[in-house]
Specification:
The chain is mainly β and 258 residues long. Helix content is 5%, strand content 40%. A hairpin with an 8-residue loop joins β2 and β3.
């Protein structure tokens, strides 16, 4: 996955410096691309197996298991993907063709002591839906979700195959706390492929520390600055919205630097 290759190459976490709109595809004609509307089925509150939460016409794209609510029982995280043929567009003038615009849902299930599962999360915002054929699938080659040490980790990428130079990698770390999955860590990495410039941020919301990095891919050292964030309330997964469009600067104003 480009996300892992980029992070390995940069050796630090960095943030998106260009808005997503700057890498929109150039249309081959004046005709606007029409994306079919997404429909998100309501999932049951309880089920005997993880498969009981998969709606008709959807499939399990990714699955992870591990204890997320610290009860000693393995829970399940799923990425569900719609498979509606009507949402696979053909004849794109640029970029990916055929172009799958089917949406995804991030689903977390808590295993109950009596057996079966309770629905904890059914989110369809965090994982960016493909609506621009010049932008690669944000989960291409992904291993997300990952459950590790009681946390839920989601990784996404941004790569414009036409119409833009920004390559980005984004990671969100959540912990179950006070009835919600709350954001405790954010890491992102971008490279401007035309200039080689890199820029970055890595935020630990538990220690209130933010690392900001700037550099170039042809230089060994980056300029690094640390600052303390003022935010003391942990955001919930539902408050993040689109993970690719997430901008921590509007939510985490710096109070001091070092």
């Amino acid at each position: 996955m480009r996300l892992h290759r980029l992070l390995a190459a940069c050796a630090f976490a960095v943030t998106l410096t260009l808005p997503l709109g700057l890498v929109r595809p150039v249309r081959a004609s004046a005709e606007e691309l029409v994306i079919p509307p997404a429909a998100y089925p309501t999932l049951p509150a309880h089920g005997a197996t993880p498969e009981a939460f998969v709606p008709k016409g959807w499939t399990v794209e990714f699955k992870a298991t591990g204890d997320l609510n610290r009860d000693g029982v393995p829970d399940v995280a799923l990425v569900l993907h719609d498979t509606d043929p009507a949402k696979v567009l053909k004849g794109m003038p640029i970029g990916i063709d055929p172009f799958d615009t089917n949406p995804r849902m991030l689903v977390v299930l808590f295993r109950t002591p009596q057996g079966g599962y309770d629905l904890a999360v059914a989110d369809h915002s965090l994982i960016h839906r493909s609506t621009e054929p010049n932008i690669d699938d944000v989960l291409e080659g992904s291993k997300s979700p990952v459950i590790r040490n009681g946390t839920l980790k989601i990784e996404m990428q941004l790569f414009a195959n036409a119409g833009g130079w920004t390559t980005g990698a984004y990671g969100f770390t959540f912990r179950w706390q006070e009835g919600h999955f709350r954001l405790i860590g954010y890491d992102a990495a971008t490279v401007q492929r035309n200039t080689g410039e890199t820029a970055g941020v890595s935020i630990n919301y538990l220690t209130f520390n933010e690392k900001i990095s700037h550099g170039r891919i042809d230089r060994d050292k980056d300029k690094v600055r640390w600052q303390t964030i003022s935010q003391r309330t942990l955001l919930t997964l539902e408050q993040i919205g689109d993970g690719i469009a997430f901008d921590p600067d509007h939510l985490v104003p710096a109070t001091s630097g070092r």
